[in-house]
Amino acid sequence: MKTQQLVDLSSFKGTIILPFFENENAIQSRSEFQNIQVSKTIFSGKKDSQYLVADSENGNIFIFLGLGKNPTYKEIKTAFRRLTAKQADFFKENVLLHIAEDMDEQMLEAAVSGLLLGTYRLGHYKSSSDKKVDWAKVTLSIFTNLTNAEKIIAKAQKIAGAQLETFHLVDLPPNKITPIFLAEWAENAGKQYGFKTKVFDRKKAEKENLHAFLAVGQGSQREPQFIIMEYRPKQAKTHVGLVGKGVTFDTGGLNIKTQGMVHMKCDMGGAATVLGAMQLIADLEMPVQVTAIVPCVENAIDNQAYLPSGVINSYSGKTIEVIDTDAEGRLILADALTYLVKNYQTDTLIDFATLTGSAVGTFGYECAALFSKNETLLKQIQESGEKVGERVWPLPMWDVYQSEMDSEIADIKNYHGKPHAGAITAAKFLEFFTENHPSWAHIDIAGTAFGDSEFAKTKHATAFGVHLLLKFMENL
């Protein structure tokens, strides 16, 4: 969908979107469309309400969109996404979004981004397409009095573009989204958006002593890929390190999953978040230096698969007793975190991972679990997520939980084997490999990266964390 700012409305023909905040007295139509009125008994701008009316004189279709009294950024974005997702019949060649004077920059950004996200469909491999709209032929015009509207519109497009790309990476099937696919995606994105990418294959990873990373992938015929991305703007304020868990499919290994395996294509949700964020950060030319590592493997089963009760090494030199081969994500993250800390001087380090069912059990599907001992960093991440509707909430990182991961035979074990505090003990395991980095945070997105919503009949990607990271870096 092409977007543009429109100044003259006199010759516009098509669908016109008129968003309104709730007004119990009466909705006043825009001065440019005085002939189109609606009774307050029919439409008062209540949240999630819509009213459609056709102008018999010129054939324009008007969509009155209710936003409620004090809508959040996410609520506005969802309201507009609902239009393109569910009212596609009214999006032909020309669409006008008319922003009133009492609507600010954040609303414009959320509205444009939401409309673009609503064009996404899951039928990537359907042999017969029932597309009602060719979105490439649709032009979205925006009318607003905001002086920097052009800049806001461009930013909204880039945010939506990165999130749409993240949708694809998570939603496409695991026989397509392999470790090599993600490595090639990172290389191509780097060339397009302006960051450097290097990739370690199995042979190179062996030379680098990435033992824990390699152990997880040794039961799969698919080549593991250790992806390193470096974004280096000329005037960087600070250096942020990112790590994203990239298990492109998780069978559980020899501790094979007994339920829910059909959804395990989403186990690279952390990788998708970091990849999408790298695209967005570079696309917006953010003045922040970023180094991102995405370890990508498939946790499969054959006669080479790593074993429960086995002891493996790691890049840090610390040994790990494998209690459960389904606690694999923390193993590849361990090597990625240590590699980043030892080889790059980052001011802040954040990892994203679909790591534990425990996080889902604690927060459900509305909030991610946040872990850090740095109170300033905790607050910054929380506030950034709240602003864009990607909520995170901290769980304790008390050292008393570290003893749960003690091993009799190795330096640490990868799973405590108990039905409690699973997200916390997983975070303590990761902390063991951060070399005491003073500003590290772990975000467990197991419940927020992939789930149910009104926009599809099956579980699908959310791109959780992409916009959070942008907002976080804007405030550094």
UniProtKB/TrEMBL annotation:
The keyword Methyltransferase does not apply. GO terms for biological process: proteolysis. Its main location: cytoplasm. This is Probable cytosol aminopeptidase. Pfam families: Peptidase_M17, Peptidase_M17_N. It comes from Cecembia calidifontis. Residues 168-469 form the Cytosol aminopeptidase domain. InterPro entries: Leucine_aapep/pepB, Macro_dom-like, Peptidase_M17_C, Peptidase_M17_leu_NH2_pept, Peptidase_M17_N. One of its GO terms (molecular function) is metalloaminopeptidase activity. Residues 36-128 form the Peptidase M17 leucyl aminopeptidase N-terminal domain. GO terms for cellular component: cytoplasm. The keyword Aminoacyl-tRNA synthetase does not apply.
